[in-house]
């Protein structure tokens, strides 16, 4: 400010002064931003970057029987899973599970999210709270709940048996069916939240306009509502996909040892066979898979947004 | 003025960062304590979780603390011996644990890796009551208790206990069986038992066993029973399964005999737990006092009564009704020997074989 008030200074020096002042302010601002960011960055460094670096380093060690870790630098831990059809199958199963759960979760959550996003009711806040209330219970408890519901003598089988619809109980648990059902329900609140926040461009006026121009309700939905919802649907899908492929508890508890995905494999290698280098390599592979998916997602959203 | 506010904010941010760093680095020094005395201080124990922890606490730890009120036992529970080994390996350079009770196949590995200390009668007098067969040849932690793999069954389906492991292959029970796959010791034991049933020497190869187990696999409801192998049978999810005799006997009582456990005629595999002193333990003197108490007739009898583990000492006198239900250690039971050294080399391979060839979706 003081510089601007200075009387009749020559043209160039004034511009120079202004430039200097701007740069100084910018530098000061940058310093302040950095100082404000510092606690968070340090926290991230201690809780995320260091462990991640440790894990990556661990993945180049050699695992010997009985948990002995040979400090070395080898690519064997990567070559083994990448050249072994078994681990390709596990990776593919993990990917398939993520896609299936993601799609199903988006399908069942969409009507709920759409209703909540468009609702003008005074109960809207309460309804949203109810929709995401399951998050207040741990995924372990909800998975155990599903074990009771889906089991041989569970609610579904005993009801169907009682109605005379089935003779032998359906195998709804200890397989991928059970894991998928459990995961879809467990991740629904996340999908709903992601969709509600992603439906920003949705506007009743646009729908009304389309309707007034003669579009049927179905056409309004397919040509106006759904395209406007797409960014929200994609975000929800990505979130559920990422959560699914990294989840461990539900595949472990509802999979009954028959569902082998990367997360359960990493757990077995870490706690059962104590082969930490191999488990670390699998974790890095999972992380790379995440990265690829997120890159594809960003491309896709840019395309839709653009 | 703005600059001053910004300056203040920056100072606050820097201060909070410093606090964060300090608090982040502050932990971890708690483990470093003095050696303490034999009758005071604390003992950090690592052992099994769940019902094992409950019963061991009630039968051994609480009476110990009544006897030595100045020693506090801190119990860190783990789901498996492998998890305990993993924790001890992580603390190798700065041990925080004093005593570990774990499976002998895993403790042998710990001995080899230099995680444990040798014990002698001077510091642990009750070692004199542990017969030679239950002592470590090199003087490491002795056997603290024994159990064996049993066949767990639903008493409504089987009013008479099944006498052969072959019942697991009976099509009548397909879909109603739970089998804990390796690396669980139950699955490893079943592999050895099946191999023996097939007349094969499992130290040389398990091809015949794998062929037989593949035939059983489609009838298996779960290879990782949850919450555990006993509750699955009690709740009727399955009618047959692998289990350990000790816990099986305990849950049989708990479920009002809805579930039973038996040793089939083809033989079974011992599950042996050793009690181990951690090398350079922070409270080694008090730890020795605890190990000595754990090997006393009093503690051994109490735990046998509570959870049906067979004592490893000669001077423990069990009531007849308990003696009948713990695994015999006098040679009267048909035992399939699963050598600890062999198991350590076979565990990875057998686990892999199960995953790739036996477990099917």
From TrEMBL, chain A:
Annotated ranges, domain ABC transmembrane type-1: 91-297
Protein localization: Cell membrane
Protein source organism: Pseudarthrobacter polychromogenes
Entry keyword Chloroplast: no
Keywords linked to the UniProt accession: Cell membrane, Membrane, Transmembrane, Transmembrane helix, Transport
Region described as Disordered: spans on this chain: 1-24
Stretches that traverse the bilayer: 33-56, 95-117, 126-156, 176-199, 220-249, 276-297
Protein name: Polyamine ABC transporter permease
Automatic annotation (TrEMBL), chain B:
Superkingdom: Bacteria
Record InterPro entries: SBP
Span of the signal peptide: 1-31
Pfam family, one: SBP_bac_8
Gene3D superfamilies recorded: Periplasmic binding protein-like II (3.40.190.10)
Keywords for the protein's UniProt record, in alphabetical order: Signal
Xref: SUPFAM superfamilies: Periplasmic binding protein-like II
The protein's name: Polyamine ABC transporter substrate-binding protein
């Amino acid at each position: 400010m003081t510089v601007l008030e200075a009387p009749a200074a020559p043209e160039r020096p004034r511009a120079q002064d202004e430039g200097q002042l701007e740069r100084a302010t910018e530098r000061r601002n940058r310093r302040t931003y950095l100082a404000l960011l510092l606690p968070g960055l340090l926290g991230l460094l201690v809780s995320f970057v260091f462990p991640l670096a440790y894990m990556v380093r661990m993945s180049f060690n050699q695992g010997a029987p009985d948990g002995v870790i040979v400090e070395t630098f080898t690519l064997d831990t990567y070559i083994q899973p990448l050249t072994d059809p078994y681990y390709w199958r596990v990776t593919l199963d993990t990917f398939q599970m993520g896609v299936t759960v993601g799609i199903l979760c988006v399908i069942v959550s969409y009507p709920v999210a759409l209703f909540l996003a468009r609702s003008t009711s005074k109960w809207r806040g309460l309804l949203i709270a109810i929709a995401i209330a399951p998050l207040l219970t741990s995924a372990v408890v909800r998975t155990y709940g599903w074990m009771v519901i889906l089991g041989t003598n569970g609610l579904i089988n005993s009801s169907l048996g009682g109605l005379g619809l089935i003779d032998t109980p359906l195998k709804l648990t200890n397989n991928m069916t059970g894991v998928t059902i459990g995961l879809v329900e467990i991740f629904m609140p996340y999908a709903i939240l992601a969709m509600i926040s992603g439906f920003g461009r949705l506007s009743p006026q646009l729908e009304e306009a389309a309707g007034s121009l003669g579009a049927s309700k179905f056409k309004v939905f397919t040509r106006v509502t759904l395209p406007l919802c797409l960014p929200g649907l994609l975000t929800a899908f990505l979130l559920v996909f990422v959560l699914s492929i990294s989840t461990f508890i539900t595949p472990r508890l509802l999979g009954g040892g028959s569902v082998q995905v990367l997360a359960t494999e990493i757990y077995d290698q870490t706690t059962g066979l104590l082969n930490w280098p191999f488990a670390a390599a699998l974790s890095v592979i999972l992380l790379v898979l995440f990265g690829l998916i997120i890159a594809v997602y960003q491309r896709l959203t840019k395309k839709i947004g653009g | 003025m703005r600059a001053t506010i910004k300056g203040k904010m920056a100072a606050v941010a820097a201060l909070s960062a410093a606090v964060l760093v300090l608090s982040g680095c502050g932990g971890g020094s708690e483990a470093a304590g003095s050696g303490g005395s034999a009758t005071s201080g604390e003992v950090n124990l690592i052992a099994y979780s769940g019902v094992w922890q409950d019963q061991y606490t009630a039968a051994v730890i609480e009476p110990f603390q009544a006897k030595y009120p100045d020693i506090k036992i801190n119990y860190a529970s783990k789901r498996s011996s492998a998890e305990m080994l993993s924790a001890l390996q992580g603390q190798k350079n700065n041990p925080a644990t004093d005593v570990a009770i774990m499976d002998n196949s895993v403790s042998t590995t710990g001995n080899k890796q230099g995680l444990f200390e040798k014990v002698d009668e001077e510091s642990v007098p009750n070692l004199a009551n542990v017969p030679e067969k239950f002592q470590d040849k090199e003087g490491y932690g002795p056997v603290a208790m024994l159990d064996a793999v049993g066949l767990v069954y639903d008493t409504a389906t089987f009013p008479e206990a099944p006498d052969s492991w072959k019942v697991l292959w009976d099509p009548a029970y397909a879909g109603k069986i739970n089998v804990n796959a390796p690396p669980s010791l139950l699955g490893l034991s079943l592999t050895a038992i099946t191999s023996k049933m097939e007349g094969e020497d499992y130290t040389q190869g398990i091809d015949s066993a794998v062929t037989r187990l593949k035939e059983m696999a489609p009838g298996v409801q779960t290879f990782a029973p949850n919450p555990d192998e006993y509750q699955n049978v009690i709740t009727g999810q399955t009618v047959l399964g692998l289990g350990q005799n000790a816990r099986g006997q305990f849950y049989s009582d708990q479920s009002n005999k809805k579930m039973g456990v038996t040793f089939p005629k083809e033989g079974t595999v011992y599950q042996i737990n050793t009690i181990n002193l951690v090398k350079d333990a922070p409270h080694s003197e008090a730890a020795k006092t605890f190990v000595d108490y754990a090997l006393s007739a009093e503690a051994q009898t109490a735990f046998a009564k509570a959870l049906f583990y067979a004592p490893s000492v000669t001077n423990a006198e069990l009531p007849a009704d308990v003696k009948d239900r713990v695994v015999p250690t006098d040679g009267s039971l048909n035992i399939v020997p699963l050598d600890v050294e062999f198991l350590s080399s076979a565990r990875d391979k057998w686990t892999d074989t199960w995953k790739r060839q036996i477990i099917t979706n």
